[in-house]
Amino acid sequence: MHSVSVKLPSSQGTMMAGTIDTPDSPPVAYAMFAHCFTGSRFTPAAARVSKTLTEFGIATLRFDFPGLGQSEGEFSETTFSSNVEDIKTAYEWMRANYAAPQLLVGHSLGGAASLKAATELRDLKAVATIGTPFDPAHAVLHFADRIEDVDEQGAVTVVLGGRDIVISREFLEDLADTNPELYLPRLRKPLLLVHSPIDETVGVDNAQTIFQVTRYPKSLVSLDQADHLATRAGVAQRAGRLIGNWVEPYLVPVNEAPDVEAGALSRSARGSRFADTVHTPVGQLTTDRPKSEGGKNLGHSSADLIAAALAADASQAIRDTARKARIKLDDVAVTVVPEDGGFARRITLNGALDDAQRRQLLAAVRPLTVKVRDEN
Question: From CA 111, how far away is CA 292, in angstroms rounded?
């Protein structure tokens, strides 16, 4: 996996800062992530879910809404509706520069904006939300004691994440005018609601209400022991894997995996010095050098794979011979380790075997030699 920083326009013409997390091999599909209220693309849910989706071959754009993170603009000049437009604008930018995103993921208020935007994104295949309120106005309910300040001053300044955030009258009025009961029934995309039953910021009843008013296909999955911001270790990654597994049937691959009928095809992994994506007839895997040899230990080393192949080949040959000769073999353990520029192999046979049977089984193992013919 590697990440690329990008700049993309907002619906108001200012530039938004974004990051695209991309798998090592060409993406199967593209996605977008909309972060939580006053958050950024670096919040745990945004960054960790997006990176986890690369495990499923999905490249994901996460971006800062205007006035937040590293994006241009003033947050006080934005509204929920403008954020919805920002998602739509980012979607079209992705379509023009990469491919139309097939998955839209939103966290908290970003999830609410994603649900509304999704009703107008024609090539979108699926929507997933994390800890999302049914009513977008829920995002500012915990500032209710300051609402009078907005009436008197036209805005209210609150401290979030150690910084001052100005919430304008326009922002609150726009939220008040937003009625999810009008647009949620129009959602025609498969929907996954991921929500923690112990979320104290946005209660799980919000997910239940969204589920009730939306159409099938839809799923509601509990993200157990998760806090609202998904800061606990492993929570955001777990949410990402839930989403990645769920969305797979709905995706239309934009890059087909190489058709390898035999052997292996290795291609350099993007954004790395030594990592490779290796395609085989039954799937793909990532290889890399260990950190001691200049790599990042992103996958099995070539020595690991050779040792594994030698161990598996010996084990299979022994078990095949035992089956054909009707020798009762309880178990076989094969250990292969690097030694003096080559490999050393140790075989342990378990079972009520006599010396002749042991010799017969060990004779089935091929010698530790590999012939390679290079072709240019």
Answer: 42
